[in-house]
Design goal:
The protein has 461 residues and is an alpha+beta fold. The longest helix has 76 residues.
Length: 461
Amino acid sequence: MIGMLRIKVKQGHYSQPRQALCDEDLVGVFFIQSIMSTCNIGYAGNLLKTKTKIRGGSQSGLDSGSFFRSARSLHADGFRWSIVVICLAAVLLVAWGAWFAFGRVSVYEKTDIARFAINRLPHPVEALIYGRVVWINLKLEQVVEEGEIIARLDAKPLKRQLEEESMRLAAFTSQANALREELAARKRALNHTNSAALAEIDEAKARLREAESVAQLAEKEAGRSSSLFARGVIFEAKKDEADTEAARKRAAVESLEFYTKKLHFKLNSEKNDRQAALNHVMSEISEIEGYIAASAGLIERLEYEIDQTNIRAPITGRIGEVAQISIGKIVQKGDRLATVIPYGTYKIIADFPPSAALGRIRSGQSAWFRLHGFPWAQYGVIAATVERAACEVRNGLVRVELSINDEQVSLIPVQHGLPGAIEVEVERISPAMLALRAAGRLFSRQDTSLPDTALETRDAQ
């Protein structure tokens, strides 16, 4: 309709300078400007002006010059800028939708329980025995070497006990030496006695063999005498004399046999007695050696405890913490006197809730560390990388260790123990997925907040 109106004007249908418009054309112009006012708010003023002019012209005739100015205004305003705005809005809406569905945003897990730490663990300086402090040299930031004496406990009672035990050990040692000499003498005496008894037995055996020979000769002589008496060559007295001599010789042999057995018995008896005496001496030596071993062990323990009165630095480093201990104070075994921070590279140790760390934080993920005492707007943040994460919960938290990136330059003075907050980039997902997760968490909280009766009713449905 607007095009038709413009064509009419160009062709001169309204060439009469004061010719009035018909009601039909007036209604069309009014309707066109109403539509244009819905597309562009700037047309409202022109519409109001046109209405006023049209109403005035309907009563007394519309001035053709006013109409031409309105037509030219309609032609200048047009739909061009409205279409441009609509197209730009559509493009922005499509771009936002594509970003919402296919874009990627980072998801972070954050904790405020994080701190700087040395790669090597700090070493506590503890009292290893009970005692009274007689000398101490502990200061914060003091540099100590491994094995350096930094405190000393009173060792006088231990030294007196060591002297007494050393004297006891010397007495036991001399007593054991005397018993060993006695044992050696008894062994020598036993050997001599055995040798003499064996020689006597050998002599008795020789005499026995001699007596047996003589007895055999006497028996033969008695046999010949009996043969001669039977033939009547000799008298009976001569025969009886030969028999008596043979019996006497046999009795001498039996006497030597019993004597030899007696010597064997005597040798065994004396040997057993002397062996029992040797065993007694050896048992006494064993008992004394037990005392010596116990005394030597006690001396070694006392020497160790005396050495433990010298409290030494366990490792080379700086003293990072000192207890309030003065000379004369009694310390118990295990009391911490100080803490030595070793030299080494720094790392970040963080503690996360199990729901945030287990299955989400892994090695190689990027992180950013902000210290509590150093505003990040002034000092910046420290970039780090996850090295390892624990798989077990301890005290309700999961330990995560991170390494500091070497290429960065930071104004923060890195020091052991500085606390801060750390953010770990655990994944990159689309905004749509992030919105779905947020909605799921919201519905989960609503479900858990429902009373038990409502949950039972819903489950029943």
